[in-house]
Description:
The protein is α/β, with parallel strands linked by helices. It is 35% helix and 23% strand.
Amino acid sequence: MCGIIAYTGERSAGPILLDGLRHLEYRGYDSAGIALQVEGPGLHVERATGKIEGLVRRVEGRLPEATSGVGHTRWATHGEPSERNAHPLTDPERRVALVHNGIVENHEELRAALGDGQTFASDTDTEVLAHLIGRELARGVDALEAVRCAVGRARGAFSLVAMPRDEPGRLIAARVGHAGGIVVGHGEGERLLASDLGALLPHTRRVTFLEPGELADVRAERVCYVDSAGAAVEKAVEEQAVSAVALGKGRHRHFLAKELHEQPDAVLDVLRGRYLSDPFRVELEGFPLDEEGARALRRVVLVGMGTSLLACSVGRHYVERFARLPAEVDNASEFRYRRPVLDPGTLVISVSQSGETADTLAAMEEARAAGCPQLTVCNTPGAQATRVADGTVFLRAGPEISVASTKCLTSSITALHAIALHLGRLTGRLPEELAAEQVRAALHLPAAVGEALELEPQVAGIAERYARFQNFLFLGRGLSYPMAMEGALKLKELAYIHAEGYPAGEMKHGPIALVDESVPTVAIALRDEVFEKMRSNIEQLRARRGPVIAVVSHGDRSLDGVVEELVELPAVHPLLSPVVSAVPLQLLAYHIALERGADVDQPRNLAKTVTVE
Ligand code: M6R
């Protein structure tokens, strides 16, 4: 949720930290700050509310020279977004500066245990850890041990970096629980720490991921690792393949636009090496079951959050069609607390762009405890989800920086299509002709997604005409229902417009009461087995003067004159239509957001990776 960066080495730490924070800003942008270890010894702390550029303006030309420091960009959980609650936080004697990502669940209990007379400078859960560490340091305890003791008393899932004032060049990192990862970067004569890989890539590709319960004692020349009991841990250095070049905006105004336009390539990257012709088939590395294991399955449960959850809702159709297994979709945040009935005959498939979403990780832990085989669909190498699952299907979509997910939705749906085909082959329930037809259809997807992007001028025109409406409905049936939900989600988060996504059949059971000339409906009305029913729903909307923007199949002009706007999709197999129909919905939300002057890449109140439950 929050972003962490830290540096120790020979270079000037300030500019490195500020640049790192720019890479991390998508994780949260309520406030930002840095602390530098300066000669004296002492701590120089600078913090500012709002985005990183506010902090940069504040410190420009007045940062002291230092070769070690920590930085943080915040998404508020405890305490309002304000300067006093911004990180880095310190203990009262300023013996340590602390940056923290995640939640200390028992922070009130720990505050009370510190005793009366302890004054707190912020309303955060984090500060209590700074106080605990500071107390230990004051007693002469070694910094690593001080941090280990403090985090040992805390409950929750979080990561942190502590910088002790009196030990120039030393940083201590800790990871507690499954949410909120931390990565060590190994440069030439320097080390970095970050909450995610992207912030390290401009400096090094040689990294080490901390596992839950581990701590790192970091100096420029060496790093030592210990577990929560203080025992030494040997950890390897991994070479990462992702390049920092992929992190820029390219020719686009926004990351969102760049990522939206990368979708043909992203979908192709899912297919590459997995969808094969001659004969047409899918081969999937990383699938955790063999034929025997697959045949023993009794059902599949798909879990995720937000857009990833909606990809799961499409994936469910694929699992049922191709593997003929009962499939359920669960919101990961509800899953665990429902006490779901799970056993080793249930394959749990999680979808997460980041692989660090706390709700999804909690659901995965629940499944692990029940002995379920698990597969995760993930875009982030090294992410926690990939470590919990028994197998991973990587999206290979490249970094998705914009807070609103675009390319990872279409890539995830494509990956779930591949998984279901693979599972169908293993279970022996997928007819060969159906498999061949689907592989052939999927190989056309990158081209179809590219053609869908050509709808942009038309959709931008629609956006201009509809940008001032305050409420929208999105309707679809079957495979288009999750896409209706996604269209509404994109409009909410990008343009701050109230939008509801419904299965079209539900409309007459309540939502139609909302409809009049001020409530436009985006209806996904494709030529499939429910088209005639969609058409009647559209007639019902028109009878109540509700304006309709219809997304229709290639070559279908039958709603011409019935609806206000007709958006014709390129040709695509009906089962793969969600990958293509998502595109005009994303474009609509993007262009309406532009019309309304919204902050497209960093919508208010959101964060890219939600590492709190
Ligand atoms: O990283 P994940 O895929 O697990 O993230 C899940 C959701 O937080 C994410 O899809 C969110 O809903 C996006 N803002 C949607 O655009």
